[in-house]
Amino acid sequence: MVFAKKIRAASAGWLLLVVLLAGCATAQVNWAERVGSYTCDQAVLELGPPDKSAKLQDGTQVMDWLTRRGVSQTYVSGGFWRGPWHGGGFSPAVTESYSPSYYLRLTFGPDSKLRAWKQFAR
Questions:
Q1: What is the DSSP string of 9-56?
Q2: What local confidence, expressed as pLDDT, does residue 62 receive?
């Protein structure tokens, strides 16, 4: 009886883990399928307000959403002592790394239907 309870508890734990991991997986959106039918209002409801937007003279709306923020990091680690023949002093080792920000751009026609999309880095 105690063994059966342990088995049920372990099974419930694994089931909970599987459900949590499945919930964390994000479905990739097929934007090409949405061209011509997806509206500007649907985009704002699904993605929130855009980070940047512009309305062109012909009524076209261009909207950009930040999908992943870039990172710029600088690491300073130990260095080396430069002898008096090189001006003396301590020279630390500096490493810089950078990753760009990624954006989704949706372009809507005057009818508020999706005309084009692209993902880009900046």
A1: HHHHHHHHHHHHHHHHPPPPP-HHHHTTT-BHHHHHHHH-S-SEEEE-
A2: 96
Cβ proximity of 106 and 95 under 8 Å? no
Q: pTM for this one?
A: 0.63
Distance CA 117, CA 31 (A): 7
Backbone angles phi, psi at 9, to 5 degrees: -65, -40
CA-to-CA separations, 106 to 4, 38, 67, 74, 101, in angstroms, rounded: 55, 10, 12, 34, 16
Predicted confidence (pLDDT) per residue in 25-41, tens digit = 456 889 999 999 999 99
- Classified as helix, coil or strand, 104 is strand
Question: Do residues 74 and 93 touch, judged by C-beta distance below 8 A?
Answer: no
CA end-to-end span of the chain:
61
Residue 70 dihedral angles phi and psi, to the nearest 5°: -75, 165
Please report, for the chain, the start and end positions of each structural domain, with discontinuous segments joined by +. 2-121
